[in-house]
Design a protein that fits this description.
TIM Barrel, four-stranded mixed sheet, alpha/beta, 2 domains
């Protein structure tokens, strides 16, 4: 195997335990495992999350919901076992459901988000056909301005849905923070919390009690305990990565989490090049001295960003080695002149590693001018995953 990803399921397990301890026994944890569990493996992470007692598995779409629901895993699909103690996990689709998929979703007791009130008539008809009440989580726009019913209309709209659609069970009410991971926008976050709380109060005055109210993402989970309500949706912290530099610096001693992912490859060729030689497409790097260059079979197709050309670093034999030249589709070049005794087939760490010379997602994200979420989520599913612990 030339290029692969190692996933430490033990780290994910411990991260979930620590998050649950952090939020306390009266708040449920919804594990956000959308987008192939941020590159960590959807089914494998789902199994860990279920074993650790998470309340929901949050996925993006019906494709991911089916991967879990139809899994042969005895943990995720109780039909595969006769153990009565194993219950089918609750799946919540965050990204919406199309009309033609409603019947399957409702029959299989999959929860899903509603953003548009106009969609409720279709849900009602599908529920009647399925002979089962649809369980929905209604999304409110409290300030993100992406999806959701406007906060000012929410009480009226939800009351109408509750009163006019007897085949729809409003199981959840949710919203999403716009920037709960920064110091600068704390006031805006507090305003979002207030809007959400006011909607809950307004619904209770109408006699509508909703079982799950959830507003917090990972940064909200850590920094705004007053907004935990009944449930928090945690994603990036499950995988051992803090959602922002501000949150990391302020809370890393209170919530000790460990990254679970290591991205590796191997040296497939070594070249001795003279001072002044130029390397790679576009000849963007000129050697300042005689150098030993290693060729690694990983590139932007695998998820190692092309904008790390001449900026990225990898770890070989516990030493950092700079990327030289442009990242290719399936290849990259690194300068290993400082690594004594380097050989063919030597492992190279692109992301992760041990404490001696690890490369963190935050560091890579800064060089790419992006966020750590993208760094791990962009690793191609075609790259094999090896699971440990």
């Amino acid at each position: 195997m030339l290029t692969w990803v190692e996933i430490d399921l033990g780290a994910i397990r411990n991260n979930i335990k620590r998050i649950k301890k952090y939020i306390g026994p009266n708040v449920g944890l919804a594990a956000v495992i959308k987008s192939n569990a941020y590159g960590h493996g959807l089914v494998e992470v789902a199994e860990v999350a279920v074993n650790e007692g998470t309340e929901f598995l949050c996925v993006d779409n019906i494709y991911e919901a089916k991967l879990i629901s139809n899994s042969k895993s005895k943990i995720l699909n109780p039909k595969q076992t006769q153990n009565p103690k194993i219950r089918k996990p609750k799946i919540l689709i965050l990204g919406g459901v199309e009309s033609e998929d409603l019947l399957w979703v409702i029959k299989n007791n999959i929860r899903f988000g509603i953003f548009n009130p106009e969609f409720t008539n279709k849900i009602e008809r599908s529920s009647q056909n399925a002979g089962v009440r649809a369980k929905v989580h209604i999304k409110i726009d409290t300030g993100m301005h992406r999806l959701g019913i406007d906060a000012g209309d929410a009480v009226e709209v939800i009351t109408k849905i509750n009163n006019n659609h007897k085949n729809i069970e409003i199981e959840g009410l949710w919203s999403h923070f716009a920037d709960s991971g920064s110091r600068e926008n704390k006031k805006y976050t507090l305003e979002q919390i207030k809007k959400f709380s006011n909607i809950i109060d307004g619904l209770e005055k109408e006699g509508i009690e909703i079982k799950y109210k959830h507003l917090c993402n990972s940064s909200g989970t850590i920094a705004f305990p007053e907004a935990h309500f009944d449930l928090v949706r945690s994603g990036i912290i499950i995988y051992g990565i803090f959602p922002s530099d501000f949150v990391k610096k302020k809370y890393q001693r209170r919530l000790r989490i460990k990254p679970a992912l290591t991205f590796k490859t191997r040296i497939v060729a070594l070249r001795n090049l003279s001072k002044g030689e130029r390397i790679g497409y576009g000849l963007t790097h000129r050697l300042k001295s005689d150098s030993r260059i290693a060729i690694l079979p990983a590139g932007y197709k695998d998820g190692y960003g092309r904008n790390l050309s001449n900026k990225g670093e990898v770890v070989i034999k516990n030493k950092r080695c700079p990327v030289v030249g442009r990242i290719c589709m399936r290849m990259m070049m690194v300068d290993v002149s400082s690594v004594p005794g380097v050989k063919l087939d030597e492992e190279a760490v692109l992301l992760g590693g041990d404490d001696h010379a690890k490369i963190e997602a935050d560091e890579v994200a800064e060089k790419m001018d992006t966020i750590s979420y993208e760094v791990v989520a962009r690793i191609a599913e075609s790259v094999p995953r090896i699971y440990k612990n």
